[in-house]
Amino acid sequence: AQSVAQPEDQVNVAEGNPLTVKCTYSVSGNPYLFWYVQYPNRGLQFLLKYITGDNLVKGSYGFEAEFNKSQTSFHLKKPSALVSDSALYFCAVRPRRGGGFKTIFGAGTRLFVKA
Amino acid sequence: GAVVSQHPSRVICKSGTSVKIECRSLDFQATTMFWYRQFPKKSLMLMATSNEGSKATYEQGVEKDKFLINHASLTLSTLTVTSAHPEDSSFYICSARTSGSSSYEQYFGPGTRLTVT
Fold it and tell me: pLDDT digit string (tens) for B49-83?
């Protein structure tokens, strides 16, 4: 079965330190990869996507993600965390072919950035 | 970027009543709309996929007679929770996608918090 794994329920980091939120996937082919952020009682906001090309993708609010095909990973990173980055982050994967083209979401990782 | 709105943002209703949630794509035509349900501190659960002008496709375990979805136009989809019960209380999020070369993009609404008393 196709799946997306975010192994950490929660990530704690001090403000100013680098952060990483992990994501691995088990989806056939070369899927589209996404990261979304959700603030309390809000919908999902798009952060970045990988479609093709350079493995390092830069997105909104200083976030970036690195696609690693051999490890089927798409970890989200930021060089210097802000308290305002505290939120719930979702990794999502969408097959390019088949599967009804449905987006598969990870379980989410809650990021806490401490001042 | 593309904007998706949802109305209402928050609704409280009594058990046994029906509630309608609207999802609109404001500046693009949404050939496909998705309805998700999110439980507290959980991921999004896809409920159904709807294409404009055709019947929605429901995910396994989702009661189509309870969660009525209508996608009458390219900018509007509605989710009606019929005979609501407290266990239907949840955060409902819609998402829209266009056709064409950008069809991998999904745009999410802000969500609707439903509380059934």
Answer: 998 888 899 999 999 999 999 988 889 999 999 99
Query: Closest Cα to residue B57, out of B77, B86, B84, B28?
Result: B77
Helix (H, G, I), strand (E, B) or coil at A73: strand
Smallest CA–CA distance, residue B8 to chain A, in Å, is 13
Separation CA B7–CA B11 (nearest Å): 9
Contact A102 B46 (CB under 8 A): yes
Could you list the beta-strand ranges (E) of B3-89. Answer: 4-7, 10-13, 19-25, 32-38, 44-51, 57-58, 67-73, 76-81
**pLDDT tens per residue, range A35-47:** 999 998 788 899 9
A–B: how many Cβ contacts below 8 A? 48
CA of A88 vs chain B CAs: smallest distance (Å): 9
CB contact under 8 A, B104 and A49: yes
Report residue A12's pLDDT band, with 50, 70 and 90 as the boundaries: very high
| Amino acid at the residue A26 | S
Look at residue A1 and give its three-state secondary structure: coil
Name the residue among B87, B24, B106 with its Cα closest to residue A45. B106
